[in-house]
Amino acid sequence: MLETAERVDPAFREDVLAGLSAPIPAVPARWLYDRRGSELFDEITRLPSYYPTQTETALLKQILPGVASRVPSGTAVVEFGAGSATKTPLLLEAVRPAVYVPVDISGDYLRESAAEIAGLFPSIRVEPVVADFARPFELPESISAFPKLGFFPGSTIGNFVPRTATDLLRSFRDLLGVGSQLLIGMDRVKPINRLLAAYDEPEGVTAAFNLNLLERINRELDGDIPLDAFRHEARWNDILSRIEMHLVATRDVSFTIADRRFSFASGSSIHTENSHKYGPRGSRVLLLAGGWTPIAEWNDSAGDFAVILSEA
Ligand code: AVJ
């Protein structure tokens, strides 16, 4: 018990206790991604109904020569997130940067994937940075003179509400500097049935991903939440243009977390994740508000997903 308690991030405890006591109960989405959560998300990306990963990967294969032609030679690529095993090699293959700087909060995962990239691309210098990219951090001194290309795929920007998303984009601009570039993936608005199917599929992996948060709370914060008292729900919030994940109480339920008592009425929910979807104009306005001027944009033929190159 003590052994696990020692490793618990105090911010997790604070976020859960404050979040579940709020008028609209919610827990920040980043706590979904513990080891098990990251494995489940990986499984999600391989589901037939979860189109973003397949669509973006196919789109990148097509467009990367065009991207590379707009990127100066001798560039340093800075990826926000440790990088996916498939998308990152595609980018590096096309752009052939001098340096690759993956930035991730998880040191173990970062070192593993950085070593893999270094093995695949012996001519690219790999300089991983352990940091939460949503908080201030510094790039290695050694790349200060290089032209820079930020890479932020996967529609991860969609996890942030627009106010926070623009703050994040501005912090990327401050970090990379005027004249730098950003290649970002953004999921598009599309028919609601397809959006809902991507976040609530028959295989039940997204449900397990969402419910894993409760298991994590029970394990790390000494909770006794009965898992069968909550079910996964994906909702489309039209006015805010986003998919929301919720954990909905299937009956009146009370439980304890870290010696604090909580009660949820049947049908009430814990909001666990947002995934904002943008139309063509909206995505460009968001980038502009964040200090980035779009210079080229690519969409798959169905218009499901966009990759946009911008300049600071
Ligand atoms: C990794 C945040 C882009 O919002 O589509 C997938 C996470 N959540 N299924 C997304 C997620 C449920 C994903 N992002």
From TrEMBL:
Matches recorded under InterPro entries: EgtD, EgtD_Methyltrsf_superfamily, MeTrfase_dom, MeTrfase_EgtD-like, SAM-dependent_MTases_sf
Organism in which the protein naturally occurs: Sphingomonas telluris
BP-aspect Gene Ontology terms: methylation
Domain Histidine-specific methyltransferase SAM-dependent: from-to ranges: 12-311
UniProt-listed Enzyme Commission number(s): 2.1.1.44
Top class in the EC scheme: transferase
Keyword Transferase on entry: yes
Alphabetized UniProt keyword annotations: Methyltransferase, Transferase
Superkingdom assignment: Bacteria
Protein name (record): L-histidine N(Alpha)-methyltransferase
Lineage per the UniProt record: Bacteria, Pseudomonadati, Pseudomonadota, Alphaproteobacteria, Sphingomonadales
Metal-binding as UniProt keyword: no
GO molecular function, one term: L-histidine N(alpha)-methyltransferase activity
